[in-house]
Structure formats: structure tokens, C-alpha cells
């Protein structure tokens, strides 16, 4: 059966086409989720899911990627969790006292030090759980949107998933962000340094305009049409993480794709360096120029 191998948004879309496929979709999604997470939490999976919901914590990294892209032969070794600021002790106690993990490290990667307040790494029988707490006044999504690559800009809860660059990720292309450029060659952070994706320094590989994913273009979390959202359990919906959230991001200061509207060379020639807050789409830029 091909369903278990489908990109999660495509699987979800198929499930909306008829009742028969709808009945098939949810068991496949739940099986995928439980298969990925259960090795880390064993018989405490329900308590763990409730903990995620109670804390409004999210899961990133290889577990989120396997949930979105489908499981690989080699299961994830790391479970990466981001928690809201001020809730470290609660998650730390759960991992150590309930799941019986022991502390391994407390220092995050230097490229994330500007947004991370606390970091914990725990181990148990070859499995690793990391917990990241953002700095005061920062949201867990700030950590996600400062990831080293476009593929890492996704997260899951116990009932849903979000990918901010679904088309690139589905086609196994990764574009480095400003954070990713700070990862030294030979080191791995997120998808940078791994062999799962084709890694690109910019969007030149598209052989055409960047359009919406342009690295120089600012995006806002409220613009839900620009990214993929899948919900399979309303009790643990991802929507609570997205709505009423005033977060914007971009991948880089400039675009180096010569076929893009926002290419740095074109901007310099026109004496029109991109402003700090860019319009959200090429269409809005054309409207601004027309004025």
C-alpha cells in the first residue's frame, strides 16, 4: 500500500475525497505518529501527549520530518522538543522521573544562542531527547523559524503538523538560512550536514524565479496560505500555535537567484535595496512599484 509512504498533506487531501479513503487516512496517520514517538516514551505515550498539550510544546527535527515525509528504514534517534519559556522544570522532571532518561548536556549549538535560553539533552538506552526553551518574550515558533534550513522549519504536535516550506521539503530540497550559514563545514545541525536532502546555499537551483519562498521576502505566520497545515486530532491541534501570533521571518537578507524579482544585483542596479519589511508576495511588490 502506497498510503504510508505519502507526503502527509497529500495523504490528508486524499482522505478528504471520499468516505472510504477518509476511514483509511486517520489510522495510517496515527500509526505513523505512534511508530515514530513510542520508542522514546514507551508505555507513557498518552501522558507524554497530554504533557505536550498542557505545556503547548512542539516537536521538531527528524521525528517531525518522518511524520511529514514518511518513515525511513532507520528510525529517528533523537526526539527534539521546544517548550514555552518558563516551563523547563516541568518537562525536565517528566523526562527524568517518568521516562527515566539521564542528563547528557546543557549547551545548545552556538548559532542558536541568541534565541535559546536553556537547552537540555537526555539519554536512555541509545535514545536521545532534547529540550529547547526560548528566551523571555520569545515563542517556540521563533526557534522553528530560526532553523538552519527550510526543511527544519516544521513542527508537529500530538494532533497536527506544519511545514513552512512544504514544496521544497516534499522534493527533498533544502535551502540554508542565515542560521545554517553559521554551521561550520563538517558539523551537523538539523538537516544541514546530513544526507537526506539536496542542500543549496540559495534558490539558484530552481532555474526560475523564487516566487513566494524567496529568501529576501518577509513572511508572516498569519498568512496561512503560504504553508501546509494538517490536523488529525482536534484535542492536540496545531492551530493554537499559529493563530493570534505576530511572528514574521525571512531566510536571508538578500536573494542571489539571478532569475528572481528580488535578486540583489537587480536591486543594487535600481538603487532599490530591499527594505527591512518586505511585501509578502511578488504581486504586492508589483502593486507598490506601479504606485
What does this structure look like?
It is a single chain. By secondary structure, the chain is of the alpha+beta class. Helix content is 33%, strand content 17%. The protein is built from 11 helices and 12 strands. Strands 1-2-5-4-3 form a 5-stranded mixed sheet. A 3-stranded antiparallel sheet has the order 6-7-11, covered by helices on one side. Strand 8 (173-175), helix 8 (178-181) and strand 9 (198-200) form a beta-alpha-beta unit. The radius of gyration is 20 Å and the shape is globular.
Short summary of the structure?
Helix content is 33%, strand content 17%. With 291 residues, it is of the alpha+beta class.
Describe this protein with a few key phrases.
alpha+beta, five-stranded mixed beta sheet, 11 helices, 12 strands, globular
Number of strand segments: 12
Q: What series of H and E elements makes up the topology? A: HHHEHEHEEEHEEHEHEEEHEHH
The fraction of residues in strands falls at 15-25%
- Cα-atom Rg, whole angstroms? 20 Å
Relative helix content: 25-40%
Q: Return residue spans where pLDDT drops below 50 for at least 5 consecutive residues.
A: none
Topology:
Elements lengths: L7 H8 L3 H23 L3 H11 L2 E3 H9 L8 E5 L5 H11 L3 E4 L10 E9 L2 E8 L5 H5 L9 E3 L3 E4 L2 H5 L2 E3 L2 H4 L16 E3 L18 E2 L7 E4 L7 H4 L5 E2 L14 H6 L12 H9 L1
Parallel strand pairs: 2-5, 8-9
Antiparallel strand pairs: 1-2, 3-4, 4-5, 6-7, 7-11, 10-12
Amino acid at each position: 500500500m502506497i498510503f504510508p509512504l505519502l507526503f502527509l498533506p497529500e495523504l490528508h487531501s486524499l482522505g478528504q475525497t471520499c468516505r472510504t479513503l477518509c476511514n483509511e487516512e486517520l489510522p495510517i496517520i496515527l500509526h505513523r505518529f505512534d511508530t515514530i514517538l513510542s520508542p522514546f516514551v514507551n508505555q507513557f505515550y498518552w501522558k507524554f501527549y497530554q504533557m505536550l498539550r498542557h505545556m503547548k510544546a512542539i516537536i521538531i527535527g527528524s521525528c517531525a520530518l518522518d511524520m511529514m515525509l514518511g518513515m525511513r528504514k532507520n528510525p529517528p534517534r533523537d526526539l527534539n522538543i521546544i517548550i514555552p519559556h518558563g516551563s523547563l522544570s516541568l518537562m525536565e522532571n517528566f523526562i527524568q522521573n517518568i521516562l527515566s532518561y539521564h542528563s547528557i548536556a546543557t549547551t545548545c549549538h552556538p548559532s542558536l544562542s541568541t534565541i535559546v535560553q536553556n537547552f537540555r539533552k537526555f539519554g536512555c538506552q541509545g535514545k536521545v531527547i532534547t529540550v529547547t526553551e526560548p528566551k523571555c518574550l520569545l515563542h517556540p515558533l521563533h526557534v522553528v523559524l530560526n532553523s538552519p534550513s527550510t526543511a527544519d522549519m516544521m513542527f508537529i504536535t500530538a494532533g497536527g503538523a506544519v511545514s513552512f516550506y512544504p514544496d521544497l521539503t516534499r522534493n527533498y530540497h533544502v535551502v540554508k538560512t542565515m542560521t545554517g550559514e553559521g554551521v561550520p563545514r563538517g558539523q551537523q545541525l538539523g538537516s544541514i550536514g546530513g544526507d537526506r536532502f539536496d542542500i543549496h546555499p540559495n534558490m539558484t537551483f530552481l532555474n526560475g524565479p523564487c516566487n513566494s519562498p524567496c529568501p529576501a521576502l518577509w513572511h508572516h505566520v498569519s498568512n496561512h496560505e503560504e504553508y501546509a497545515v494538517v490536523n488529525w486530532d482536534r484535542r492536540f491541534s496545531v492551530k493554537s500555535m499559529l493563530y493570534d501570533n505576530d511572528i514574521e521571518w525571512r531566510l536571508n537578507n538578500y536573494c542571489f537567484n539571478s532569475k528572481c524579482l528580488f535578486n540583489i544585483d537587480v536591486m543594487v542596479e535600481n538603487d532599490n535595496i530591499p527594505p527591512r519589511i518586505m511585501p509578502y508576495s511578488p504581486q504586492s511588490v508589483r502593486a507598490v512599484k506601479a504606485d
